[in-house]
Design brief:
With about 550 residues, the chain is of the alpha/beta class. Helices cover about 35% and strands about 25% of the residues. The chain contains 17 helices and 22 strands. The strands form four sheets. It has an eight-stranded mixed β-sheet, sandwiched between helices. Strands 4-5-6-7-9-8 form a six-stranded mixed β-sheet, sandwiched between helices. A hairpin with a 2-residue loop joins strand 4 and strand 5. Helix 1 runs antiparallel to helix 7 and helix 7 runs parallel beside helix 11. The chain is flat, with a radius of gyration of 32 Å.
C-alpha cells in the first residue's frame, strides 16, 4: 500500500521549526499591539464574487490560481425526481407518490419502487430492500446524482442504481479558498457596519491563504500570511499620508526586532483611480507595437491587465519594460502631494526607502502608495527576494458595495520570512565557526537552527521519585516556567544527554533531595552546579 503524503504544494510544520514560527508570530502580535492594532479572524473561504470584484477578474490570482468549487447547500430530491420522470416519461404508464418515493408502472415491464437519494451505500440499499418487502414488490430503483458522464446505472440483484448528472440542490453558490485576505477584511468591515463607529479600524491577521501556483522554494499552494489593514471613514483620517508612513515605520520596526538584516523598502505611487486608468491606457498603447516580442504571459497581460507587465521578472523582456511610460508622469496634483507627505514622514522617522517607478502592484484595488520590502540575493529566497508588500486601496470598500472607506494594508509571506531568518542564522553560525563575528545579532543559537529551550528538565533518580518529580513539575509550571520530566528508569547519563538538548537547566531529584527539599541544579551554559531550597527554586530558575 502506498504511503499517504501531504498534497503537492502543502507541507507539515514540525518542532523545533514551529518554535521559530511562534517567535515570528508573537513578535508580530507584540509590535502590532504597540501601534494599536487588534486581531481579526475571517473565514478561510468566501464567495467567489468577493475576489472577482475586489481583486479583479483579469488578475492572475482570479483567472488562474484560485481553488473554487460549487457548493450545493441542500440536496433536493424533488428536482431529481422531476428530471428522472421527464427522462423516462415515454416508458411510464403511471405512478403513485409517497414523499421521495414513486411506485411506478411501466408500459412494458414489471412495476418497481423508485427512490431518490443524494448518494447510495450498503445502508441505503438495506433500508430500500425493507421498503420493497413491505410493499410486496420484487424490483426497485435508487436514483442518485453524479458529477461523471461515465456511470449510468449498476444492478445489484433486484435493485438498479441509476445515475443522473447534476448537483440537484435547492441552493448553490460558488465558493473559493481565500487567495489573499484584504478583500475578506473589507467585507467584514462592511458586513459588521464598522463604519458606523466613525473610528479608524486597525486590524491584523495571521493565517493560511491558498493559490494553485507552481510550488517552488518559499512558495506553496497553502501558504501563511501575516497582514494588517487600516481603514475607516475619511473623517477618521484613514486617507491621511500619515497612516501610510505609520504602517511602513511599523513594518521597519517589526523586521528590525526580528533582526532581519539589509532589508530594502521600495516605494511608489500609482495615483488615484483616474490616474491609474489614464496610465493603464497609456501602457496598453505603448505595449501594442512591442508585445509580440514578449513572453506569452506578458502578451496576455498587455491586453487584460497591462500594469502586471511591469511586475514581470522575465529577463528577456526587461529592456522593453524599462522603455515603457512611467506612472509618475500621470499623477495628478493631489496624488503628488500625498506621496510627498508620505516620504517626508518617513524621512522624519529615519526609515530608509527608494522610489521604484516600476512598482505598481497588479491587483485592481491599489491606489496611491504602493510598497515592497525585499532583501538581497543570497538571503534564502533566491532571485524572488520579496518579503512583503502592500499599498493603499481607497476605493475597495465602494467596489464591494460598502461605504467610502479609504485604507492601506500589507501582507507578509510568512513562509518566505522564515526562510530568510533560517538563512541568516546559518550564515551567522558559519561566521562564528570561522571566527568572524560580523554576523552577531542574528536570532537563534550558533548552530543555525532555532531552538526554544525549556527552563528546566527534572531527572528523577529511581522509579520511586517519578511521582514527586511530576508534583515538582506541576509546581514550577504553575509558576510560569517551562519544564520537562524524565523517568526514574533512565540512567543519570541519559537524563543529562536529554536535558542538554531540551533545557537550560537540569534538576536532579533523588531520595536525599526529596527528603531535605534542597534540590541540585546544573546550568548547562555556565556548567555551574548549585543546591537551592525548593521554595526558592522557581525564583532561581527565572533569574
Amino acid at each position: 500500500m502506498a504511503i499517504l503524503k501531504a498534497v503537492r504544494g502543502t507541507r507539515d510544520l514540525l518542532p523545533p521549526e514551529t518554535a521559530l514560527w511562534n517567535h515570528v508570530e508573537s513578535t508580530a502580535r507584540a509590535v502590532f499591539a504597540r501601534y494599536g492594532f487588534g486581531e481579526i479572524r475571517t473565514p478561510i473561504f468566501e464567495t467567489t464574487e468577493l475576489f472577482a470584484r475586489g481583486v479583479g477578474e483579469e488578475t492572475d490570482i482570479v483567472s488562474k490560481e484560485m481553488y473554487t468549487w460549487e457548493d450545493g447547500e441542500r440536496f433536493d430530491p424533488v428536482s431529481l425526481r422531476n428530471v428522472w420522470v421527464d427522462k423516462h416519461k415515454e416508458e411510464l404508464g403511471g405512478w403513485s407518490e409517497d414523499g421521495t418515493e414513486l411506485e411506478v408502472e411501466y408500459l412494458n415491464g414489471p412495476s418497481e419502487l423508485v427512490t431518490f437519494a443524494s448518494r447510495w451505500n450498503d445502508r441505503t440499499i438495506q433500508s430500500f430492500i425493507q421498503d420493497l418487502e413491505a410493499r410486496e414488490l420484487s424490483y426497485g430503483r435508487i436514483v442518485v446524482p453524479t458529477s461523471s458522464f461515465e456511470k449510468q446505472e449498476e444492478t445489484f440483484e433486484n435493485i438498479v442504481v441509476e445515475y443522473i448528472r447534476g448537483p440537484f440542490t435547492k441552493s448553490s453558490q460558488s465558493l473559493t479558498l481565500r487567495p489573499e485576505n484584504t478583500a475578506g477584511v473589507v467585507r467584514a468591515y462592511i458586513e459588521h457596519k464598522l463604519a458606523d463607529t466613525g473610528q479608524l479600524q486597525k486590524l491584523f491577521y495571521i493565517g493560511p491563504q491558498f493559490r494553485r501556483e507552481r510550488p517552488q522554494r518559499g512558495r506553496y499552494r497553502q501558504f501563511w500570511q501575516i497582514g494588517a489593514e487600516v481603514l475607516g471613514p475619511p473623517s477618521s483620517g484613514s486617507d491621511s499620508p500619515l497612516r501610510d508612513a505609520e504602517v511602513l515605520e511599523m513594518l521597519a520596526t517589526f523586521l528590525n526586532e526580528l533582526d532581519i538584516r539589509n532589508w530594502r523598502l521600495a516605494l511608489n505611487s500609482v495615483g488615484s483611480a483616474a490616474d491609474r486608468a489614464h496610465y493603464s491606457a497609456a501602457l496598453r498603447e505603448a505595449l501594442a507595437p512591442v508585445k509580440h516580442q514578449m513572453c506569452e504571459d506578458n502578451q496576455r497581460r498587455a491586453e487584460t491587465n497591462p500594469l502586471r507587465v511591469l511586475d514581470s521578472k522575465d529577463p528577456n523582456d526587461q529592456d522593453l519594460i524599462n522603455a515603457l511610460p512611467k506612472i509618475a508622469d500621470y499623477l495628478d496634483e493631489d496624488s503628488r502631494s500625498h506621496f510627498a507627505q508620505v516620504k517626508a514622514a518617513l524621512d522624519a522617522c529615519g526609515v530608509p526607502y527608494e522610489v521604484e517607478p516600476r512598482l505598481v502592484r497588479g491587483l485592481d484595488y491599489y491606489t496611491r502608495t504602493t510598497f515592497e520590502f525585499t532583501i538581497p540575493d543570497g538571503s534564502g529566497l533566491g532571485t524572488q527576494n520579496a518579503l512583503l508588500g502592500g499599498g493603499r486601496y481607497d476605493g475597495l470598500s465602494e467596489m464591494l458595495g460598502g461605504p467610502k472607506a479609504p485604507g492601506i494594508g500589507f501582507a507578509i509571506g510568512e513562509d518566505r520570512l522564515i526562510l530568510t531568518l533560517q538563512a541568516q542564522m546559518e550564515a551567522n553560525a558559519e561566521a562564528n565557526k570561522s571566527g568572524n563575528q560580523s554576523g552577531a545579532g542574528a536570532p537563534g543559537p550558533d548552530s543555525g537552527t532555532w531552538v526554544q529551550k525549556l527552563d528546566a528538565f527534572i531527572a528523577p533518580m529511581g522509579v520511586a521519585q517519578n511521582a514527586p518529580a511530576l508534583a515538582l513539575a506541576q509546581e514550577l509550571r504553575r509558576a510560569g516556567l517551562s519544564v520537562e520530566v524524565g523517568d526514574g528508569t533512565f540512567r543519570l547519563k541519559k537524563s543529562f544527554e536529554i536535558a542538554d538538548k531540551l533545557a537550560r537547566n537540569i534538576i536532579i531529584l533523588g531520595e536525599d533531595e526529596a527528603t531535605t527539599n534542597i534540590l541540585t541544579i546544573k546550568n548547562f551554559a555556565t556548567t555551574q552546579q548549585t543546591k537551592i531550597p525548593r521554595n526558592q527554586l522557581a525564583t532561581a530558575l527565572k533569574t
